Amino acid sequence: MNFELPDDLKDLRRHVRDFARERIETVAAGLDAEPTFPRATLAEMGRMGLMGVSTPESYGGAGLGTLAFTVAIEEISAADASHGTLMAVTNGLPQKMLVAYGSEAQKEAYLPKLASGAWFGAFCLSEAQAGSDAAAIRTRASAVPDGYRLRGAKAWVTGGGEADLYLVLAVTDPEAGARGISAFLVPGDAPGLSFGTPERKMGQHAAVTTTVTLDDVFVSDGDRLGGEGEGFVMAMASLDGGRIGIAAQSVGIARAAFEASRDYADEREAFGRSIRAFQGVGFPLAEMATRLEAARLLTQKAAWAMDRGFRVTQEASMAKLFASETAGFVTDAALQVFGGAGYTRDHPVERYLRDARVTRIYEGTSEIQRMVIVRQIYRDRERRGRT
Amino acid sequence: MKILTVIRQVPDAEARVRIEDGEVALSGAAWVLDGMDEYGVEQALRIRDDGLDAEIVAVALGPERTEEALRTALAMGADRARLLVADEALDPLAVAMRLADVVREEEADLVFVGGKQADWDSAALGPALAEALGWPLSDWTTALTLEDGGIRTEHDADAGSETLTLPLPAVVSTQQGLNEPRYPTLPNIMKAKRKETRSEPADAPASRSRTVGRTLEQRDRLGRVLEGDPAEAAGEVARFLLEAGR
Questions:
Q1: How many whole angstroms separate alpha carbon A377 and alpha carbon A285?
Q2: A44-72: per-residue pLDDT in tens?
Q3: Given an 8 Å threshold on Cβ–Cβ distance, is A57 in contact with B184?
C-alpha cells in the first residue's frame, strides 16, 4: 500500500501547477466575464503535452497514464474549470477512441494534430431528446456510394463551432438499437456542418457549448471509426476514463474554493479575531478539507486501478459521484465563509460555485452514476455466487 | 560545444515568508529554481534548438534539496546535472572559486549564470566566476547571438545599453528580457528523473565574508499631503515624481 504519488508525478504536478497559476488562472475571471474560446492558452497547453496526455508518444502524445492525467487536470481545473473541461474533452473520446479503435491511417491523420493541440477534438453524442438515454439518438447515417450521408442535430457539444474534428455518433441501422449506432470522424469544415449560437450557461463560460447540425454531411468510408454498429459500444467502453477525468476536475475546482476560503478565514477578522477561530467557520473548513481528501483518494484509486488494467466501472462512477458532489458542497461552503464578499465578482468563489454545478450533470449525472454503481454491486455479488 | 548553466535554488517569492527571532524562517519555505537562472537554461536550449550540436550541463552548489531545481533544468531540456553538496550557505566568491574548477573540468565553452540571485539580491557570482576563470564576461545580458566562433550580446550598462562581442570561452550573466523561458513538457518532466545527476561533496573554499547582523531597510516617509484642486494636485505629483527620478 502506498498513498504517495511517485516522484515524477510530483514534479509533473509542480510544473503544471506553476503553468496553471501563471498562464490560466490569470485569464479565468476575464473569460468568465467575456467568454471566448481560449485558443492561445489551449495552444500553450498543447505545447506542454496537456492536450494528448494519454496518447502514445509515437502519435505525438505524452504517453502517460490515467493517474498522470488526474494530476494534470486537477491543476488546470483549480486555475480554471473551463480549461479543465476543454482539456478533458479533446483528451477524451476523440483521442481515446482513435487510439483504441482507429485504423493506422486514421491514427496518423488525426492523432498528432489532436495530441499537439493544433486541432481541438469534440464529441457529438447527446441530442435534444437523448441525454442520459444516449442510445435514443436519431441522427441518421445513410449509406451512399463510398461513404455515408449524416443528417440530424446534436446538442451540448463542447467546442462546437471551434473544434477542428468532430467525433459523431449516428444511427446506421434503426432496427438494431444501441448496436445500430456507428462512429464517424467529421472535419470542422465539412460542407453541411453548422453550429448554433453558444448556450448561455451558468458557469464554465469559456468551454463554449453549442448545438451541431448535420445537413447531409458526407463522410467517406475511411472516416468511419470502428465497424458499423460498434459506435455506441466503443463510446461506452471509453466512459470510465472520462468519469475519472471529471472527478479530478471536480477535485481541482473544490481545492481552489477550499484554499481561497482557508486563506480568507485566516485573514478576515471579526469580533477582534481571525474568523477561523470561530467554530461556525472552522468546522466547515474541516469538513471541506476532509471531503476534498476523500474525493481525491477515490479519484486516484480509480486512476491507479485503471492504469493497472483493472475494470474500473464502479470505481470511476464512485469517484465521479463523490467528487462532483464534493465540489458542490465545498464551493457552496467556501462562499459562505466569504459572506457577502463571496456573493460578489470581486472574489472567485461565486465563479467556482457556478463552474462546479455542472460536474454533477455532465459525463453522466449523479443519478446515472448511482444507477451504474448499484448495477455493479449486484453484478459483483452474482459473480461471486451470492456470498 | 559544451554549455554550462549555473542553477540556484531560492525561496518561492510568491509563498508566505515567516519571520522568527528577527530572521527569515526558511524551514517551511517552498524552494524554486531562481528565475534569473532559468533565462540561462532557456538560452542554452535555444542555441541547441537553432541546430548547434551542444551538450547542456546544469550545475548547482547547495544542499541536497537543490536537486529539485536541477531536475527543473533537466525537465526543460538540459542533458545532465551536477550537484556540489554544501549544507552551509557560502558567499559568491567561494561559490565562484569552486564552480570555476567544475567549468575547467567540464571544458565548457560557455557559462550562463543568473544576473542576480533572488534571495540575497547579490549580483556577484557572474563577475566572480569570470574573474576566477580569467574569461570575458557579458553581464546583465538581454540578447545573445553566436557569431564567428564567439558571441555578440546586448547588455545593460549604467546608462543605456551596449553591444559586446566576446570570444569563447566566456561567462554570460542573464536578466529579464533575454528570453521567455519555456514550461517543461510532460514527456520531458517524466524523463528528467532518468537523466544523469552526479552528486558529490562541494569541498568548497571557506566564505571570507560573514554576517554580523540583519536589519530591515526602512525609509522615512516624506509625509507630504497635497490639498486643494485634484487636477492641480495631480500636476504637483507628476512634477515631484519627475524630479525625484532625476
A1: 33
A2: 999 999 999 999 999 999 999 999 999 99
A3: no
